[in-house]
Amino acid sequence: MSYWTYMTYMVLPPHGGYRKLLSYQLATIAFDFGLEFANKYIGTRSRTHDQIVQALRSGKQNIVEASMASGTSKKTELKLLGVARASLEEALADAEDFLRQHGLVLWPKEDPRILEIRKLGYKSDKSYKTYMTYMDNSESAANCLLCVIHQTNFLLDRQIQAVEKEFLESGGLSERLYKARQNVR
């Protein structure tokens, strides 16, 4: 590796790679499953349909943007991860509203059905199709969506903590630029 390639690597660390992030993978599943749920049980003419789909999409897309911004700005990365988290929280509230407004049961986190859904999150080859058995009725579909969103939020919370820790330990781009400039002198 040449000196300049090395210095560029030190100043702008590798970034992107969002497809490998578990938070992105689960956010994608939440978006795909949520779209299917909204189409089947809410209906495409409803404003709630658009809101939940857009919130899920925003959650997924902001993880992408955060990953791409990570090389140049930890501040921007943290902000976008926060937006992703807030968007998913909005979708969570919409799914809870759906259950309440339709007189359906919100399954508690220790419910055996929720525990089964949570286990699916550990499969390495999962996609939204992995969860499709829960699409049979609106109550199980909404509860499955809630579970996947909760798992995604948990991963996002951990990701945000890791980025904060990295920033505190390594600093941001300005600090890396200064160090690289000092090394060149």
From TrEMBL:
SUPFAM superfamilies listed in its UniProt record: IVS-encoded protein-like
Annotated InterPro entries: 23S_rRNA_IVS_sf, 4helix_suffix_dom
NCBIfam families cross-referenced by the UniProt entry: 4helix_suffix (TIGR04258)
Protein name: Four helix bundle protein
